[in-house]
Specification:
single chain; 4-stranded antiparallel β-sheet; 3-stranded antiparallel β-sheet; 7 strands
Length: 74
């Protein structure tokens, strides 16, 4: 599998999912449960992302050049 874009941040994994953010702010959620990885979701955050996301307290934190996002299941 190949994802589009340039990547500066490291990939982060939590449970059975891998989270990838390219420099243009496109987030990819990859399912790791099958024989081959599968893209579950792709979302464009619309900001430059160069940092590695952090996982803490059941949430994913992503910082861009303009915003800080907290993503968690409700």
């Amino acid at each position: 599998m190949r994802l589009k874009g340039e990547f500066s941040s490291s990939l982060v994994a939590c449970g059975t999912h891998l989270y990838c953010f390219n420099e243009r702010g496109v987030a990819h959620v990859i399912d790791l449960t099958g024989k081959e990885p599968k893209v579950l979701a792709t979302t464009d955050l619309g900001d430059t992302i160069l940092c590695t996301p952090a996982i803490a307290n059941g949430a994913l934190y992503v910082r861009s050049d303009k915003h800080l996002w907290k993503v968690r299941k409700l």
